[in-house]
Amino acid sequence: TKLSELIDAASQLYNDLYEEDRRHKNSTGSSSQSADYGEAMDIDALRQGSKKNRFDFLKWMKGRCFGCGSEDHNKSNCTRVRSGAACGYCGRIGHFQDVCQDKYLGLDRGRGLRSNPGRSGNDSDRNIRSASQEEDKAEQLAAKLDKIQLQLKELNAAKAEVEEGLKDFL
Questions:
Q1: Mutual angle of helices 54-61 and 121-169, in 10-degree steps
Q2: What is the rounded distance in angstroms from the CA atom of residue 10 to the CA atom of residue 73?
Q3: For residues 64 and 73, what is the distance between their CA atoms, to the nearest angstrom?
């Protein structure tokens, strides 16, 4: 039946995107580590207590604008951040204090304002752009996953309605 084929296709797409996200998150770790035992970084993080990491931040930001924190749009459509206002916590331009990754991670205030003598301005700018692009990709992937989950729910609801309707005819 076409409905069950659509549900299977959507489910497969969701699983593929989930696996791609998982591979992306694990790409920095060793591929020889067993998933049962976790990555070495995860184990060390557990020993240190409840320190938050970048993936915790991305999970917390899922479905939100990386500029202002709204759940109604993503950063590319954010009108609040386009004003060029700097973050009140780190000092960087492009987001507000409410969604500052440095603040979430408990890093020092004003890190974005400090100059790093070991780096040229170009490298620093390139790293900021790279991190911003990574955040945009993560945000886009999270939005796709949310959309697919919603479509799966709608398809399952439609399937249930069709099956219920078929009971009346049988």
A1: 50
A2: 24
A3: 7
- Buried b / exposed e across 71-104, counting CB within 10 Å, b at 16+? eeebbeebeebeeeeebebbebebbbeebbbbbb
Q: Mapping DSSP to helix (H, G, I), strand (E, B) and coil, where does residue 86 land?
A: strand
The residue written with tokens 């100059």 in the block is 115
The first and second tokens of residue 40, run together, are 């070495």
Tell me the chain's radius of gyration from C-alpha atoms.
21
Lowest mean pLDDT among 16-25, 53-62, 71-80: 16-25
Handedness of CA 67, 73, 74, 75 (dihedral sign): negative
Q: How far apart are CA 145 and CA 2, in angstroms?
A: 22
pLDDT higher than 50, residue 82: yes
pLDDT for 105-132, tens place per residue?
888 888 877 755 444 445 555 555 556 6
- Other beta carbons within 10 angstroms of residue 66's beta carbon come to 22
Q: Which residue has the tokens 């009108």?
A: 79
